[in-house]
Amino acid sequence: MTGEVRAEETIRTGNRRGRRAAIALVAPAVLIVAGVYAYPAITTVAYSLSDIDLSPRFRIVRFTGLDNFFNQLGSGAFWESAWTTLYFGVMLCLVTVVLSFAIALLLNKTFLGRGLVRVTVLLPWAVPPVASGVLWVQMFHAEFGFLNGLIRAFGGEGDIIWLGGQTIALHSVLIAEVWRWIPFATIFLLAGLQIVPRTVKEAAAIDGAGSWRTLRHITLPLMLPVVIPVVIFLFVWAMKVFDTIFVLTRGGPSRATTTLNFLVYRQGFEQFDFGSAAATAYLLSALTVLAIAGLGWMLVRARRLAGA
Amino acid sequence: MVGAAPGRVVRRAATYVGAAVVLIVMAFPLYGIILTSTQTERDIRSADVAFVPTYITTEHYTRIFSASSGVPVAESMVNSLVVAIATAVVTVAIAVPAAYALNRMRVPGRRLILGGFAAIYVLPTLLFIMPLFITVVQLGLRDTYVGLVLPYVAFTLPFMVWIMGSFVRAIPVSVEEMALIDGAGLAQLILRIVLPLLRPGIFAGLLLGFVLAWIEFLTPLLFTSNLSMMTVTLGLFRSTMDIEIGQLAAATVMTALPVILITAFFQRNITEVITAGVER
């Protein structure tokens, strides 16, 4: 409905003003974006198909076709990173959404001090990723970090090497990232909850549905069209995580926290192999686009189910 | 609430327990870093973590702002301030007209442009960074303000156009039509009617642009090498190579402080930006 009205408005007002003026208003934005995105994106295609030399100065040595892509797809390191990335993305979405949903349900109630909780929940969003990385390095420190200190205060051993083990390091990065993304997800979901009409919930309550059943059968299905965009945003960010990994683990120990995005960095700016880095960057993009397409399809279905 | 049913009392209590847990867990890391920055190095490096301080020292803050500090924190804060303000102003100045035209006028390829702006956001930044890196080096823009502001503006712009679009759509069309009937031209319409109505959106956009530029790390990491061009985030990263944890904690607090203050003061505006997408 809104789409039709808006189209009509555009046409109505558009006729009175010139197309040329419209183009002039949009042009700076489009030109800058084209210059900084489209041109490099196309150049990166060329990189991905070439053998590149960076020293003494940048030059494309020769055209190698799809070799860079095949090399990546044939390498164990690439697949290891791909699985790490997918696992990290799915876990980040899952944990963040579940926790944020619970916090949003809480903030949707009225209680004393709600404003304070609201601001506090929002604050991690404001911490620069690098600062949050440094902060979590302190939290995770094996000898005198706060987490182990806390465990010791409660009588535990408190000797966990949070950033050292193959499995635990990835989960430590996950904890730091979940903390950083809870603010966004909570605020977004809270706004969605406030759209769910109170009358629907009241009707359910009159029909004798308990609060859990109201949540399960009324709130959750109605919230699905809001939850899925949050999941899409979180997934995209998970695919692009860089700062936190750079500060916390540098992709290590060995390759345990090297997501595909970080692999691009390692190949490009540690090994100075722009060809491989470009190929990996495009493979990561393909993975992201595929996942988004799947989620987008779910969104369309959810909207239809919610009757929107 | 004398006559309240027991179930309601329990639920009320559960709400407060939940609120306390959320408050403590979310604030704990921030509390931890502030605490660390105010303790002596010896106490920080003690295995008995004191969660409640018995004293407060500002020595680490004095040290990082002193001339002998290994990382020029004060200078990097000035750099970040300049770059972040420039980014915010330029991005909003370019995004607002574009958002207006894309939402209210007939722009050829409107869908393609909006779709492209959204699609760009999905792709990894490193994909664009490599050729940009080469270009910036070749043009001699490494270690300049322009070399930082230009990529910042570009990286923020697509998102900003989308956000400003949601504010533009919130303006009732009837207001604009009245102005047109009164014989206003496009320039007058935008300057006299649209911009004043957009003021809250523009303000939110400036905050957002400032924050995004302040926290950016990858661009300065690759596009600057000179200590005098260092931004706060890069400076903070350099500080991690020092051994003094107290100073590092103080630098972390100083890096986060401006953005935390902005968020705390303007939480309503920031919430508006974040939720602009909910009504799609």
List the helices and strands and how they pair.
The complex is a heterodimer of chains A (308) and B (280).
Chain A: H1 2-16, H2 19-48, E1 50-53, E2 59-63, H3 67-73, H4 76-107, H5 114-126, H6 129-140, H7 146-153, H8 166-195, H9 198-206, H10 211-240, H11 243-248, H12 260-270, H13 274-306
Antiparallel strand pairs in A: 1-2
Chain B: H1 6-37, H2 41-44, H3 59-64, H4 73-104, H5 110-122, H6 125-138, H7 145-169, H8 173-181, H9 186-215, H10 218-223, H11 232-239, H12 245-265, H13 267-275
Give the key terms.
heterodimer, A: 308 residues, mainly alpha, two-stranded antiparallel sheet, 13 helices, 77% helix, globular, disordered N terminus, B: 280 residues
Question: Mind describing the biggest β-sheet of chain B?
Answer: none
Q: Which class of secondary structure composition applies to the elements of chain B?
A: mainly alpha
* Poorly predicted ranges of chain B: none
Distance between the amino and carboxyl termini of chain B: 41 Å
Q: How much is the average pLDDT of chain B?
A: 83
Mean pLDDT figure of chain A: 81
Summarize the amount of helix of chain B as a percent range: over 70%
Helices and strands of chain A, in N-to-C order? HHEEHHHHHHHHHHH
* Record field, number of beta strands of chain A: 2
Outline of chain B, from the CA principal axes?
Answer: globular
Helix content of chain A: over 70%
Report on this structure:
The complex is a heterodimer of chains A (308) and B (280). Chain A is mainly alpha-helical and 308 residues long. Chain A has helices spanning 2-16, 19-48, 67-73, 76-107, 114-126, 129-140, 146-153, 166-195, 198-206, 211-240, 243-248, 260-270, 274-306; strands at residues 50-53, 59-63. Chain A has a two-stranded antiparallel sheet with strand order 1-2. The longest helix of chain A is centred in the last third of the chain and has 33 residues, at 274-306. Chain B has 280 residues and is mainly α. In chain B, 46% of the residues are buried. The interface between A and B is large, with 102 and 100 residues.
